[in-house]
Design goal:
188 residues; alpha/beta; Alpha/beta knot; two-stranded antiparallel ribbon; 9 strands; 43% helix; globular
Length: 188
């Protein structure tokens, strides 16, 4: 995928907590760094942090500012390059609208989940679709205990869950992002 039309979204609201209540999760510094680096490695054009809380947005902005200006940029230019993907939005619809404006078409929405849905799809099939570059794709990662059902209903596709050799299935969002990007777009 040389001319990627891939975008990433890390959604902090609406997501579930362990009691299946809808909550807003906090920004996690390591998630921003690691998902941006993975996104840059696999050709993403942008990474959206979907966070409605202004104080949490400020944390993300401060992280990006540190690595994109002054000492942080000089110390680690690669970090600055990957964090150039970062966009902070209040609502998921803002990310979709921005991509639609840039690409002149609505992106195909692909969620990730530890659950299976009627519109679940395997990695090879989705990777083949994404590699054609015919459409923009927004790969949507939920934080907490996953995207709320209201978000899942908006998705065109949901990727199959990631399973290891055990029944445990609760990866951090940054671990899941790296695995998923490699399964979709990694070289053989």
């Amino acid at each position: 995928m040389t001319d990627s039309r891939l975008y990433l979204a890390v959604v902090h609201y609406p997501v579930y907590n362990k009691y299946r209540e809808i909550i807003t999760t906090s920004i996690v510094i390591h998630d921003i760094h690691d998902i941006a680096r993975a996104g840059k490695t696999y050709g993403a054009r942008a990474m959206y942090e979907v966070e409605p809380l202004p104080q949490e947005q400020e944390i993300a902005l401060r992280i990006a500012q540190f690595w994109n200006e002054g000492f942080g940029r000089e110390y680690n230019p690669n970090r600055a390059e990957s964090l150039s993907l970062l966009h902070i939005v209040t609502h998921f619809e803002e990310a979709v609208a921005e991509i639609q404006h840039l690409e002149a078409e609505k992106p195909i929405l692909v969620a990730t989940s530890a659950r299976t849905f009627a519109n679940s799809v395997g990695y090879h099939a989705m990777g083949d679709k994404m590699r054609t570059g015919d459409h923009p794709y927004l790969l949507v990662f939920g934080t907490g205990f996953g995207l709320a059902d209201e978000m899942m209903m908006q998705m065109d596709y949901v990727l199959d869950p990631i399973w290891g050799p055990t029944e445990f299935n609760h990866l951090s969002v940054r671990s899941a992002a790296a695995i998923i990007l490699d399964r979709l777009l990694g070289r053989d």
